[in-house]
Write a structure and sequence with these properties.
CATH architecture of chain A: 2-Layer Sandwich
Structural class of chain A: alpha+beta
Number of strands of chain B: 5
Largest sheet of chain B: 5 strands, antiparallel
Helix content of chain B: 25-40%
Strand order of the largest sheet of chain A: 1-3-2-6-5-4
Number of strands of chain A: 6
Helix content of chain A: 40-55%
Order of helices and strands of chain B: HEEHEEEH
Strand order of the largest sheet of chain B: 2-1-5-4-3
Oligomer: heterodimer
Strand content of chain A: 25-35%
CATH superfamily of chain A: Dynein light chain 2a, cytoplasmic
Amino acid sequence: MRVLEPWLAEPLRELVRESGARVALLMTASGQVLAQHGFTRSLDVMAAAALGSGILATTGELARLVGNEAGFGAVVHQGRQQGVWLAGFDTPRGRWVGLIVFGRGSTTGLVRLFFERFAARIQALAPAPTVVREVLAEGFERELDASLRQLFGTS
Amino acid sequence: MTPARWQALLEEVTLIGGVRGAAVVSAEDGLVVHEAAMDGVATADVAALATALVRRAQSLLQVLGDEVPRMVTLAATRGTLVAVQGKLDLWLVALAEPGAELGRLRLLLGDLAPELG
């Protein structure tokens, strides 16, 4: 498990343990990864985050087209061997998205239950938004490297 | 089976004294198919957890070389959950308060569950 901010670790650990998730990914609505469990390759994380946030944005637009202004609560893809749960939730730091991959040892209902608890816990624990620092060209590479090292544990 | 028939079946269960709610649950995904419950009963949560319980019981009985479970009862200090297998991987689940007529509840669930599907 890798997290960008330490306070995310325990709620994510509990979500994975209780729901029986194989893979978990927490990201912002724009696809920036905040925490992950179960991925081994950084490219997979980036692709999953981009695809997940894209799917949620697409279904949100679809919801608006059919008159559901609030959007859909969650998107579930149910396969023969594993399923994917994708849902957004509001936090003091904007809208975040969770992507959970679960196998036959779990169920959609169980993932829904513990994801809702996870979202409530994140909402309660999230520190207030900090002033966004200006990303300067000279610091960009260093900041990016630091974030990637934190997420994937590479030296 | 039609939703109207499901509703009638669940209302029959909730008429038993001390029963707080009943639901038809899909064990495949742990979701509620139909429900009849008092206010304050989170049937979606009950369905998810009851399914997890049923699956654990199935795993346990497989290890023991027994048949699949037909009825699972979880007795706790603040109530009892009874789940009975129906057709098509559907389970009839009831949540009862302490002191509910559990014997009658079990008999009724056993009679009604084969009608699911």
